[in-house]
Amino acid sequence: MVELEAPQLDAVFHALGDATRRRMLRRLAEGERTVGELAEPFDMSLAAASKHIKALERAGLVRRRIAGRTHYCALEARPLAGAHDWIGFYEQFWTSRLDILEGLLRREDSQKTKGDGDE
Amino acid sequence: MVELEAPQLDAVFHALGDATRRRMLRRLAEGERTVGELAEPFDMSLAAASKHIKALERAGLVRRRIAGRTHYCALEARPLAGAHDWIGFYEQFWTSRLDILEGLLRREDSQKTKGDGDE
DNA sequence: TTCTAATTCAACCATACGGTTGAGATAAAA
DNA sequence: TTTTATCTCAACCGTATGGTTGAATTAGAA
Hints:
Two copies of one chain form a homodimer. By secondary structure, the first copy, chain A, is mainly α. Helix content of chain A is 58%, strand content 12%. The first copy, chain A, binds a DNA duplex through helix 4.
């Protein structure tokens, strides 16, 4: 169990909400890459790619090592564990054919308990 | 394996990137809720909460059943499976103490294969 | 029919996002 | 030293986001 704080979850999920950044992470899974290498596959300016990388850093998903004029980026996967756990809670609602029954039961239930003021 | 399309992943992760919407999903895990019930815990207008719910619908995470003037929202967890899988790929990078070794190996590796033009 | 309740819609606002360009900063190469 | 390469920074732009308010829509309740 990792239980990230809400603001960190915000940053992680926000970072993942962009295909460019997701592709960058996939690339980093193969190993360290420079900013230039990370930017190369994309049809955008270096500055734009640099901003994406900063979003990943803000989320704690990338750590940067500066060597001279070159910045090496490495995957930092740990915060993903928290996001994974958060989503994992819902696995019960999509796994197996029980989910159909579950769904039906929850629907019934909400009819009976509608407006019971629970939090 | 679920493999959501990029645009759906965008929408799902974007939807999850907001604490208000995450809390709404947690609430919906207990059962169906009306728009009003979903909005109630939050210090914002109904209209604002309504927009959040629409973001969840766009991501396919909520389905709505209209009965008279009341809109009932229900959790639709399936798209979360795709997001869960996507993140799950990185589990190898955070699980167990192997991750430290892995990280070291990948760093070495990237020194040797730097600029090999892989995609 | 008239009142009230549950929601959305439309217009608006401030701020964030994702992109651009051009100008630094810094370090390696000539 | 001068040139070139790697990146960030700053300013700007259009569009999206997250919020507001007030009016419109629709349907139970009196």
